[in-house]
Write a structure and sequence with these properties.
Layout: H1 8-16, E1 21-27, E2 33-39, H2 40-44, E3 49-52, E4 76-81, E5 87-88, E6 96-104, H3 115-128, E7 132-145, H4 174-178, H5 180-193, E8 197-202, E9 208-213, E10 216-217, H6 218-238, E11 241-244, E12 258-265, H7 282-294, H8 299-302, E13 324-326, E14 333-335, E15 345-347, H9 356-373, H10 398-406, H11 410-415, H12 417-435, H13 440-445
Parallel strand pairs: 1-6, 13-14
Antiparallel strand pairs: 1-2, 3-4, 4-6, 5-6, 7-9, 7-10, 7-11, 7-12, 8-9, 12-15, 14-15
Length: 450
């Protein structure tokens, strides 16, 4: 494998900034940043770094599935830098840079269960059809006071008044102003990392916020979303705050989603969801048909933890269905109002806890299967789907979602058998830990039984 060497301009930039090191990083299946650090001059010379192949499927509890899912001899993968992603590290005290990497097996192929590989595989399927996805994620998250004891509930941070926000203050500017120092640093970090932000708003929960990223290429937006979530955590830590991207961190309060806006353009940049008359195209309907057919089997990629499913509460704008409709927030697949050139599908199922590479790969992949198989959608929903008894419900636990995924071929068709088996194995490790916990609810009520 040939070494990846930065060009003269990039090398000069690293030296002029005084970058001591370069972080070669990638997202594992849980969305954590993993990798290794190289001294600047070693990176400039093209020194190659390898890492255990299994790191890509490290579980959120730090354990790994059985070695048979990543190679009996525990092999390495090479970290191949994508030099277009070379950026400064905004939260570093000593100047450092980072670069996002692909995990490449020793035979030169992309490691099949690395999340960036999974997304690239789906995008290659679209490229073979002469199509390119355009996406825009919307991320919701909470900002809490420091929480050193995980047995204690999260709390909103104290504000200038000395009080804590109680929630349901959506679209207010007050808390944005109270947390101005944090958001100033986040804005600066976004500029340094090349993250193109759009709208920022206060959401319904106490100290809950939403950011929209500007639409663009799917791989670039997955990279930006991964970096943005990392930036939020690091910047919050520097301010003594805890930024939380759990799907449901507070009981009785709204959950945090990661809605995905998706459209497709042809080689001329025209939106193929609209025909030449500006009407819904056949390909648009095939895409939605694919989402309706395959999303129920891909839920562990959108909702990857037991906590993810606590977000689905009727009436709190978290849909539990795969209905579709025009400008309807009770459906899982919303078609926002707009002209023919802006026709798109908003997938409202993913939580903010989802890995951005895998959630985009699964959503776009479901649409791709719909196009390849010529699937047709149901009739668009009318009215409030939450109140319709016959609306199709989705799995309501990770156990049920994992069983549905393993009983279908959607994941293996999109990402191959190696990814399908390895991802399921990671979730089994995490579920074993989860079901081994004794909760406060059990101690509160079951200890009273005779």
């Amino acid at each position: 494998m040939y070494p990846v060497v930065p060009n003269t301009e990039q090398s000069q930039w690293l030296r002029e900034r005084g970058c001591r090191d370069v972080e070669l990083c990638f997202a594992d299946v849980s969305g954590f940043a993993r990798g290794k650090t190289l001294p600047r001059e070693a990176f400039i010379s093209g020194q190659t770094l390898r890492i255990a192949r299994a790191v890509a499927i490290q579980s959120c509890v730090g354990e790994f599935p059985d070695y048979r899912f990543y190679g009996e001899n525990d092999p390495d993968a090479t970290l191949r830098p994508d030099l277009a992603t070379l950026r400064p590290v905004p939260w570093a005290g000593t100047p450092r840079a980072l670069v996002l990497c692909d995990c490449v097996d020793l035979d030169g192929a992309l490691t099949p269960f690395a999340p960036r590989s999974a997304l690239k595989r789906v995008l290659a399927g679209y490229a073979a059809l002469g199509l390119q996805p355009v996406v825009a994620p919307e991320l919701e998250f909470y900002i809490f006071a420091a929480n050193p004891d995980p047995a204690q509930p999260f709390q909103a941070p104290p504000l200038r008044s000395g009080r804590r926000e109680v929630g349901f203050d959506s679209f207010s500017f007050t808390t944005l102003n109270d947390l101005e120092a944090l958001f100033d640093d986040v804005y600066r970090g976004c500029e340094q990392l090349g993250i193109a932000t759009d709208t920022w708003v206060h959401e319904m929960g106490p100290s809950q916020f939403e950011i929209n990223l500007k639409h663009g290429d799917a791989l670039a937006l997955a990279d930006q979303t991964f970096l943005f979530k990392t930036l939020l955590k690091e910047t919050g830590n520097r301010h003594g705050l805890n930024v939380v991207c759990m799907a449901k961190p507070l009981a009785g309060q709204p959950g945090s989603s990661m809605h995905l806006h998706q459209s497709l353009v042809d080689r001329d940049g025209s939106n193929v969801f609209s025909d030449r008359h500006g009407h819904e195209s056949a390909l648009f309907h095939h895409f939605i048909g694919g989402l309706q057919t395959h999303l129920p089997k891909l839920m562990p990629l959108f909702c990857p933890s037991p906590n993810s499913y606590r977000r689905f509460v009727k009436g709190l704008a978290a849909p539990v269905n795969v209905s579709w409709g025009l400008d309807n927030r009770s459906v899982g697949l919303r078609i926002p109002q707009g002209g023919p050139e802006a026709r798109r599908v908003e997938n409202r199922l993913p939580g903010c806890d989802a890995n951005p590479y895998l959630s985009l790969a699964a959503s776009l992949g479901a649409g791709l299967l719909g196009i390849e198989d010529g699937l047709q959608p149901s009739a668009p929903a009318q009215g409030n789907v939450f109140k319709q008894a016959d609306s199709e419900l989705l799995p309501n636990t990770l156990d049920a979602a994992l069983a549905a995924m393993q009983g279908a071929d959607s994941v293996s068709r999109l990402f191959g058998e190696a990814f399908s088996l390895a991802y399921a194995a990671v979730k089994e490790v995490e579920l074993q830990h989860f079901h081994g916990e004794i909760t406060p609810w059990e101690r509160r009520y079951l200890s009273l039984l005779a």
